[in-house]
Amino acid sequence: MAAPRRGIQKKFDKNALKTLPILLKYLFKYYKWRMILVFFLLTLVTVSTVAAGIFLPIIIDTITYTEPGSKAVLIHTWPEIKDQVIMLGTILASIYLTGILSSIGYSVTMAFVGQGFLERLRIDLFNKMESLPISYFDRTPHGDIMSRYTNDVDAIRQFVTQTLLQAYQAFLTIIFVVSMMIFYSVWLALIAFLGVFVALVIIKHVGGNSAKYFMKQQVSTGKVEGYIEEMMNGQKVVKVFNHEEESKAAFDIINEELNNDAYKANYYGNILMPILNNFGNLLYILIAIVGIIFYFFDIWNLSLGRLFTDIYSIVNIGVVVAFLGMTKQFTQTIANVSQQMSMIAMAMAGANRLFDLMNQESEVDNGYVTLVRCNIDENGNITETNERTHKWAWKYVHKSTGELEYRELKGDILLDNVDFGYFEDKLVLHNIEIYAHPGQQIALVGATGAGKTTITNLINRFYDIADGKVRYDGININKIKKDDLRRSLGIVLQETSLFTGTVMENIRYGRLDATDEEVYEAAKIANAYDFITRLPNGFNTMLTHNGSNLSQGQRQLIAIARAACADAPVMILDEATSSIDTRTEALVQRGMDKLMEGRTTFVIAHRLSTVRNSDCIMVLDQGRIIERGTHEDLIAKKGTYYQLYTGAFELE
Question: Could you tell me which residues come within 8 angstroms of residue 218 by beta carbon, excluding any fewer than 6 positions away?
Answer without folding.
Answer: 151, 152, 155, 346, 349, 350, 353
